[in-house]
Design goal:
Elements lengths: L6 H20 L10 H6 L2 H4 L15 E7 L2 E6 L2 E5 L4 E5 L4 E7 L2 E6 L3 E5 L4 E3 L11 E6 L5 E5 L4 E4 L4 E3 L3 H8 L1 E7 L5 E6 L2
Antiparallel strand pairs: 1-2, 2-3, 3-4, 5-6, 6-7, 7-8, 9-10, 10-11, 11-12, 13-14
Length: 202
C-alpha cells in the first residue's frame, strides 16, 4: 500500500521494490502488487523503473569478505571488486589490484591493496594514500578511528601505527608491543579511551 503525499513513504516503496526484485529472481511465480495513490499516479511506470534483472559480471571464485551499509547503499567487498547496491541497481568498482580488507572511516572507507598500500574509497573510486606503501605486504586487520583525522592502523603482527591523515608513525606502546606477539585479528573503539582487540593466541 503506497502514499505519494509523503516523499519518505515513496522512497520506502522504491527501496522495497528494489529488494523484492532479487526475491522475484529466485521465485518467479511470486506476484508483486503495488496499490495506493502512488501506484495510481505512476501506473505501469513504477515497474519500468525496476527492471527484473541486471547483468553483473562477477569474477569466478570471487568471495565477499566484508559488507557495509552507508547512506542506504550496501558495499560488498571481494578480493577484486567492490559491488555497490543502492536499492535499485548494482555497480561494480574494480580494485587497483588484489583487495585484502576494507574498513569504514569518516571519509568513506579505507581499503588495503596488496603490493600497493592503503587507499581511500569514496563509493565510486579509489585514491592512493601517500606514504602507505609500508602496508603493501603487512596485513592490516583493523582500522580504528580515534578522532576526526586520527586512526590506529592495527596490523596482524607488526603492532599499531598512528595515521593523522598525512603520515604514519609506529606506536611504541604496551598494546602495540602485545599485538606484535599475539596476532591481532580485530579491533574496535568502544569510547574515547576504551579499545578492545581480538587476537589469535598460542
Amino acid at each position: 500500500n503506497t502514499c505519494s503525499v509523503r516523499e519518505h513513504a515513496e522512497q520506502k516503496v522504491r527501496s522495497r521494490l528494489g529488494e523484492l526484485r532479487f526475491v522475484k529472481r529466485r521465485r518467479p511465480e511470486m506476484v508483486i502488487g503495488v496499490i495506493g495513490c502512488m501506484a495510481e499516479r505512476e501506473g505501469k511506470r513504477i515497474f519500468q523503473k525496476y527492471p527484473r534483472s541486471e547483468k553483473i559480471k562477477i569474477e569466478k571464485n570471487d568471495e565477499i569478505w566484508k559488507i557495509y551499509e552507508d547512506k542506504e547503499t550496501l558495499y560488498f567487498q571481494s578480493f577484486t571488486t567492490i559491488y555497490c547496491y543502492n536499492q535499485v541497481d548494482v555497480k561494480s568498482v574494480k580494485g587497483p589490484f588484489t583487495l585484502l580488507f576494507m574498513f569504514r572511516s569518516n571519509k568513506g572507507f579505507i581499503a588495503q591493496v596488496l603490493g600497493n598500500g592503503l587507499y581511500w574509497f569514496d563509493g565510486s573510486e579509489f585514491k592512493f594514500i601517500e606514504g602507505s606503501e609500508l602496508f603493501s605486504w603487512k596485513k592490516v586487520h583493523s582500522i580504528i578511528e580515534t578522532g576526526d583525522n586520527d586512526y590506529w592502523i592495527c596490523t596482524s603482527n607488526d603492532g599499531v601505527y598512528k595515521f593523522d591523515g598525512k603520515s604514519f608513525l609506529a606506536q611504541n606502546s604496551e598494546i602495540s608491543s602485545y599485538l606484535k606477539m599475539q596476532t591481532c585479528n580485530a579491533g574496535l573503539s568502544l569510547n574515547d579511551s576504551l579499545f578492545v582487540f581480538g587476537t589469535i593466541q598460542d
